Amino acid sequence: MRTVPSILHIDVDAFFAAVEQRHKPSLRGKPVVVGGVGLRGVVSTASYEARVFGIGSAMPTALARRRCPNAAYLFPRFGAYHEVSQVVMGLLREVSPLVEPQSLDEAFVDLEAMPGGAPETVEDVRAVALLISEQVKARTGLTASVGAGTSKLVAKVASDAEKPVGCVVVAGGAEQQWLDPLPVRKLWGVGPATADRLLRLGATTVEELRGLSEAELVGLLGHAWGGQLYRLSRGLDEREVSPERETKSVSVEDTYAHDLQDRPAIRAALTELAERVVRRLRESGHTGRTVTVKARGHDFTTVTRSETFPAPTDDARLLIPAALRLVDGAADAATGQMHGIRLLGVGISGLAEYAQGDLIAELEGLDELAAQEAAEADADADAEHEAADPGALPAASPVPAVTLYGPVPLAPEARHWLAGQDVRHTDLGPGWVQGAGLGRVTVRFEGPDTPPGRISTLSVDDPELLPVDSAEVARGALPAPPGSH
Fold first, then answer.
1. Which of 91, 138, 203, 334 could form a disulfide with 209 if both were Cys (CB 3.0 to 4.6 A apart)?
2. Where is pLDDT greater, at 24 or 117?
């Protein structure tokens, strides 16, 4: 056991919502909710202004809207969050090479590996923690809370104890005294369901939980989880900070406000998801072998289908067609009893940090298949047209709704503008989408370093209005590095 609390847990405060407020001046100091904005959406992150209304992560968006109808409800912009996360993780690696990211906005840091030598006292640890908090603010414009302890458990709980902008250092030997008064929900992995079951045994605090025997907890929660909780309530956590924690998969999924009713709509939505997951795969520096598609029907029937390549790849021209090949069967199976798809997901697993294989040959095979399918489709269309009216002139071939691979081609009038999306207008400049519907899109024209901007309502097919990569916006919003001009 360590005697100095040299394990830190850093957690950027309300990360997704804080990035949105940093990039959108008109939202600063106001309630912001990030996540699925539709009727079936779920809150991912809420700003502290929104939390006052009882809004929290994993809450249904419909309930959040009832509690705070005037909040800004925005779709996530993962490109922006990834850019900011890279800055935070880079800063932490300047402090110590032993950094274990937990997600985009949190990580453990082991100070015993600091290049200048490990801190020797609680005061030394506190000084490092405060410096990290200050540097996160200076380099990103965001705030972070830091917890320090002799174990990952204590550091994790401490970082959450005084949010936002908290700094809690639990001295070695004082862990149990500090943990005992806390609600059981503060322990790692204890959610509402587990807390309710513990309540039946009279355990609402860590101290009361510690009064239960291991046999009681195993009987209530099972051998693995009951035994782990028994140890956690005593502050026993010997896990090391591991910077090589393996990323097993990259995935995205969406729940739709209205069920997807036909195959073109399903394939178009699936293509958009597949493009997002391939982009995240490349950003993480990985390649993958197995593509998995998930489809959930109206009655919650959930079906997955997978396809594995001979070798890892990050090529969208291989991965996206694979997802499209899988989605038809998955959707059919998920809608066997009731029509309509409520959720789609795409994942890539079997990750590696390299790509191999004869990609040229595989891609040429796809091109031949695409040409063959297109020729067959044209022949079928001509035959149907002649059978219906032999004397009519040949009709122009329609633009296919979905191509074999790559993005779905969208005409300007078919663009789907999302709340929170970054845009730029040729005349009006940069901005973000507040909402869209009935053929119009409402945009607030402002940027991270401008005053709150004006609102304009435009036609959804305005050719001067173009989407902007959120990562580009995030890079432009980062403060200049120290010493730069």
1. 203
2. 24
